[in-house]
Amino acid sequence: MWMILTIISLLQVVTVHSLDNGLARTPPMGWLSWERFRCNIDCKNDPDNCISENLYMKMADLMVSEGFKDAGYQFVNIDDCWMARERDSKGRLQADPDRFPHGIKALADYIHSKGLKLGIYEDFGTETCGGYPGSEFYMQSDANSFAEWDVDMLKFDGCNSDPKDMDTGYPIMGQFLNQTGRPIVYECSWPSAQWVIAHIKPDYKAVREHCNVWRVARDVQDDWVNVQHIIDVYGTDDSGFTNFTGPGGFSDPDMLVVGDFGLSYNQQKTQMALWSLWSAPLFMSTDLRTIDSASKALLQHPGLIAINQDPLGAQAVRLYQISSLGVWLKPLAKTGSYAIGIVNRDNQGMPNTVKLQLNQLGLPGPSYNISDVFENKPLGVYTSTDMFIMSIEPTSIFIGLAVPSS
Ligand SMILES: *[C@@H]1O[C@H](CO)[C@@H](O)[C@H](O)[C@H]1NC(C)=O
Ligand SMILES: *[C@@H]1O[C@H](CO)[C@@H](O)[C@H](O)[C@H]1NC(C)=O
Prior knowledge:
Blueprint: H1 4-7, E1 29-32, H2 34-37, H3 53-65, H4 68-71, E2 75-77, H5 103-113, E3 117-123, H6 139-148, E4 153-157, H7 166-179, E5 185-188, H8 190-198, H9 204-210, E6 213-215, H10 224-236, E7 250-252, H11 265-277, E8 282-284, H12 293-299, H13 302-308, E9 317-322, E10 325-331, E11 338-344, E12 352-357, E13 367-372, E14 377-383, E15 387-392, E16 396-404
Parallel strand pairs: 1-2, 1-8, 2-3, 3-4, 4-5, 5-6, 6-7
Antiparallel strand pairs: 9-10, 10-11, 11-16, 12-15, 13-14, 13-16
Helix pairs in contact: 3-5, 6-7, 11-12, 11-13
The site of one 2-acetamido-2-deoxy-beta-D-glucopyranose has 7 residues, from loops.
């Protein structure tokens, strides 16, 4: 704990150039089908939950009517399994004709009519992860299709390819997207595919120069063990991505599973708060038709979203993890201010009382106004040696805001 003052020097603003397309100045927010709806293509037996234009139109409707759009969520993103099994006679991608009878352009028009944006999915390799036509040998054609269809974001996955080819291949796709002239947020699985699958240390400087969003860990699952794994990927940062998040380009820990089946309320709160502290893209993957009000309120929490969308775009650093307690610190754009996260991963059934001096939270200044972000409640002025005491429930988090008081 006493090494905090040296660790603070790690909290620095990104200086590496981001992709120069003017997009993703703050982390993109939206809805993505994969984690919740996967590759369900059985529209005969499961018409309401299969990957089809109806699903995306319905989610767009609900994003508007249920307040998600007003809270900041903007993208409705298609994931794998939207395509026909074959390209057309000219080698172009086509949507599955039964599940997307009006085509992607019509879906984009509908999404745009709601004031939202449409994202789509392809893969760098010969096939997508789900076995649909991949972009290898077709990258320019595919970039042109996405632009003709008025798509606003591309998730470019890394299955069925050689991770060693990615250092050249992902920038080439970026160039083809750029040449279309249409602003398209470019999300790359490049570093996660290299690191997780091939254990190649990613060149994050190059990734940031060519992508707006990049995946850094394995896929999220609807499960607390998996979410904790991602928390530790961020905490240990073995592949060295922390310093590269900032306006124009953001590390992506994958989707929010808030509102699904596997996490308790406290675990959902912890996921939403950490993703906000990390300046992570906030992509919900949940059924907006049935989500309960507590999960919905978490996803729309104004204080957490404000931390996520802070214009400095820094990624919180884990200052330390001592047994079950992890302390995270994120510098904010407002001079000298920080967001603090204290995660209690103890699961022994009763809240932990945590006592820390402000300087043990890594705050360098003499005194701060502290508030509880989640409760939107001021907690008073604390000097660097004042003891800060809070009670944190099992697998939950305290999120504080520290603003210099003088
Ligand atoms: C293409 O790249 C140029 C140079 O980096 C940039 O100025 C321009 O905004 C980009 N255009 C699009 C559509 O991404
Ligand atoms: C982040 O940048 C700092 C300062 O340049 C450096 O000391 C640190 O090692 C970097 N962290 C990582 C994980 O690369």
